[in-house]
Amino acid sequence: MQNLDVNKIRSDFPILSRLVNGKPLVYFDNAATTQKPKDVIDKINYYYSNINSNVHRGVHYLSETASKEYEDTRKLVQNFINAKSHNEIIYTRGTTESINLVASTYGRNNLVEGDEVLITHMEHHSNIVPWQLICEEKGAKLKVVPITDDGELILSEYDKLINEKTKFISVVHISNSLGTINPIKKIIEKAHKYNIPVLIDAAQSIQHTNVNVQELECDFLAFSGHKMYGPTGIGILYGKKELLEKMPPYQGGGDMILSVSFEKTLFNSIPYKFEAGTPHIEGVIGLSEAIKYIQKIGIENISNYESDILKYATEQISDIKEVKIIGTAKEKSSILSFVIDGIHPHDIGTFLDRDGIAIRTGHHCTEPIMRRFNVPATSRASFSFYNLKEEVDVFVESLRSVIKLFS
Length: 407
Ligand code: PLP
Hints:
By secondary structure, this protein is an alpha/beta fold. The protein has 14 helices and 17 strands. The strands form five sheets. A seven-stranded mixed β-sheet has the order 4-10-9-8-7-5-6, with helices on both faces. β1 (19-20) and β2 (23-24) form a beta hairpin. The structure holds pyridoxal-5'-phosphate (PLP). Residues 94-96, 124, 126-127, 172, 176, 201, 203-204, 224 line the site of pyridoxal-5'-phosphate (PLP).
């Protein structure tokens, strides 16, 4: 393992040197969104200062340059997740839109009354609600794989729940409120024995671990730019070419057509069939710098460093007897959720904020998990490769003083 020069890395992120409430910012809300390196910020500035124009539409220099950067990014994403073709990479607004796209096109085309869609108890709302909507429309049923008290999927339940009515499986790679890393390769293998396509929600994994779609053989993969050091409003849907080609368009408009008459419209080929209207060009171009930045540090170095920080934070927080960790799976990544008896998570968050510490409190868009663990909400610290063990110490000290105050 290469040792990361974290102080050098931190200097690449302008926001990390600011003060909040008079204290150095400790940013532990990385699962909600990550901070942006200067490369990404500068690239967005470069785009608007030098090449701003619409893509795919002009023959002039600016449009051709912006279009080239836009399409080069598609190849970069292809390479980053090892897709077979750049045509399998669709730009969306984020994970949420990617999942909605699949539910409303693949789902609408393939589900019939009585069919079943299988998800898990640890999904983010964005991998629950789109399936609920399409199931309701089609008269299909949503089935849920349960989890253990440690927050691990009960894998054997897949064998019980998969049957001839199961038409789609969607599963989160890493849980945003428990940190559990799911054995997605095994789940995909189980599903493919019955020819059931699988969507992987990679919103919390793409920035922490190597994701290789050909090795996984997943059918769809969704993630968001803003959680991987890129801009907000841009995301990716990967889909296998043979599936994407059979799916109807998601939205109608410019760019997604070959020809339009009042009688009939012919649709463009993939990926453009799914990209109606002027896209988020600045987002795409900014995302390319985020990917290059991750590649520069190396995803394995990131994984190792973040595992170390998580281990350290877990040890430190476990020393506080009032703290109960929610999510104690054997395989975990970067997320530490906890509750403290008698102190509401919002109070914890507010008090930590006074010390310049940003954590997340609430249900984290996973209400079913909160119910499963019988808590209204949790406090969640989530880590990145730019965080320091010294910051964990500041966080733990602040937590101790909150407990003292409330007792
Ligand atoms: N899935 C998971 C596991 C998430 O953590 C999130 C966001 O927190 C999403 C989906 C939705 O991502 P976005 O809001 O970027 O679309």
